[in-house]
Each structure stands twice: as structure tokens, then as C-alpha cells.
């Protein structure tokens, strides 16, 4: 379904990003698997993928202008992209209302740098690139937190950052539709990744969180990967701009 397409996946070394990178490679894409520090994780994502279709790319999204530099290198290595999956994000279990001022400032700055500033810089670079190429697919991995907030107020900064980037993605969807740029927002619920397992510990354990979920289980990362691959295929262009909820009916708008 993705034969001949070249796609950049940010945060491909673990969790949802790793699963997405594996899935789209399995569907024939040439994958630029971005990682921050965990090269081994990115290598694991591309394990078994022919070398000509697996490109590992390091980039520090926590650094100012790190996103722009990484995107430019991706273009230099590939000659051009057909799609981008804006997935990389951080969640800190600190920076809540009652935390000290310096901790609040540090957590919000770090969270917004990766989840909003770097993600939006990549979004901007992708739009400019795709306009020159006559179009492209953008998938932004959001969260149900962008719609409903979070149950743990210590992660208030994460919820705010996801809401901000969702609005940026929606703006691109409407503003550049006639340039052939299609933008899809995937909003997972509680996905079975380390980030969610850490979150569950903050809530009293995995069983506590699962008891709240309609299906009684975390969302498999493979569900997010399969949906992402479909969006990248361009087979349903008029889905552009939609926020796609993947939470097992635990949150229905």
C-alpha cells in the first residue's frame, strides 16, 4: 500500500513510533526512522527491513533549531519525502499546580519545546516541502488529552501541549488543502507503551487504569500503526483534517 513512498517518522525508537515505523516499512515504504538518543531502538524498528528502505536519523528535538536541522538532513539523505509522521513527544510526571515555580517552568519549557515548538517546526518544514512537490501526507499523533485533559493533574503541561499542536495540525489541514497537503490527527487513548505504563503507576497501577477503560485493556500500538499507514496511503483524501479517536470507546465525543 505504501510502495515507492518515503516517509519520516519521528520518535521511531520506542512505543507508538517504533510500531508505526515497522508497519509502514512492512507495507513497502522507505522509512526515515528518527531517534533522539536510543539508536538501538531505531535499529530494532528497522530490523529485517532492506537497507535501501531503512534510514536511521538522529536529531535532538529538545534543542532549539534541532527539528529544522533534522528535517533538512532527512531531505538531503532521501532527495524528498512523501509523508511525515509527527509522533515524538515527552510526558513529565511533574510540573503540576502545587510544584515549585522552578520545576513548573522547567517541565513546561521542556514539554513545549518537544511537543509544540519542535513538532510545529517540522510541520512548517513539511508544508513548505510538500508545496514544492505538489502535495504530501502529514500524520500528527495527538492524544485524547487534547480533547479532555488528563486525569493526573501533574501532567497538565502534556495535555496543554497536545491541544496546542492539534490546533496547528487543523490549521494546516484547512489552510493548505488545495496544495495537495493532507493532514490527519490521530488521538490515541491509553496505549500499551512505556509512557502509558509509567502513567498507570502514577494512578495506582495498570489494573486501576484498565478498570476505567470500556474494553478493559490498553490500546495495542499496532492499532495506531495500522491507522497511520492507511492515512499515509492517501486512499481517503477527504479524511484530511479529521481527528481520529482510537481509545476502545472509552471516550466518545
Outline of this structure?
The protein has 253 residues and is of the alpha/beta class. The protein has nine helices and seven strands, in the order E-H-E-H-E-H-E-H-E-H-H-E-H-H-H-E.
Give a description of the structure.
There is one protein chain. This protein has one domain (6-246): 3-Layer(aba) Sandwich (Rossmann fold), CATH 3.40.50. It has a seven-stranded parallel beta sheet with strand order 3-2-1-4-5-6-7, with helices on both faces. The protein is of the alpha/beta class. The protein has helices at residues 15-26, 39-45, 66-78, 101-133, 145-148, 156-175, 194-202, 206-212, 221-233; strands at residues 6-9, 30-35, 54-58, 83-86, 136-141, 181-188, 243-246. The two termini are 30 Å apart. Helices cover 47% and strands 15% of the residues. Helix 4 links the parallel strand 4 and strand 5.
Amino acid at each position: 500500500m505504501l510502495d515507492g513512498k518515503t516517509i519520516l517518522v519521528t520518535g521511531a525508537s520506542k512505543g507508538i513510533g517504533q510500531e508505526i515505523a515497522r508497519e509502514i516499512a512492512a507495507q513497502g515504504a522507505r522509512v526515515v526512522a528518527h531517534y533522539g538518543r536510543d539508536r538501538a531502538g531505531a535499529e530494532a524498528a528497522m530490523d529485517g527491513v532492506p537497507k535501501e528502505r531503512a534510514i536511521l536519523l538522529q536529531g535532538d528535538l529538545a534543542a532549539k533549531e534541532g527539528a529544522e536541522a533534522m528535517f533538512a538532513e532527512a531531505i538531503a539523505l532521501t532527495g524528498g519525502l512523501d509523508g511525515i509522521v509527527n509522533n515524538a513527544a515527552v510526558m513529565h510526571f511533574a510540573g503540576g499546580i502545587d510544584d515549585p515555580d522552578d520545576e513548573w517552568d522547567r517541565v513546561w519549557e521542556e514539554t513545549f519545546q518537544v511537543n509544540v515548538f519542535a513538532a510545529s517546526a517540522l510541520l512548517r518544514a513539511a508544508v513548505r516541502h510538500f508545496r514544492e512537490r505538489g502535495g504530501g501526507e502529514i500524520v500528527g499523533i495527538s492524544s485524547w488529552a487534547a480533547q479532555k485533559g488528563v486525569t493526573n493533574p501533574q501532567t497538565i503541561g502534556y495535555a496543554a501541549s497536545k491541544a496546542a499542536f492539534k490546533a496547528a495540525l487543523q490549521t494546516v489541514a484547512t489552510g493548505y488543502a488545495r496544495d495537495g497537503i493532507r493532514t490527519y490527527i490521530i488521538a490515541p487513548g491509553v496505549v500499551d507503551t512505556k509512557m502509558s505504563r509509567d502513567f498507570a503507576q502514577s494512578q495506582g497501577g495498570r489494573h486501576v487504569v484498565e478498570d476505567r477503560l470500556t474494553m478493559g485493556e490498553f490500546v495495542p500500538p499496532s492499532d495506531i500503526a495500522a491507522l497511520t499507514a492507511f492515512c499515509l496511503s492517501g486512499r481517503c483524501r477527504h479524511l484530511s483534517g479529521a481527528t481520529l479517536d482510537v481509545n476502545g470507546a472509552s471516550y466518545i465525543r
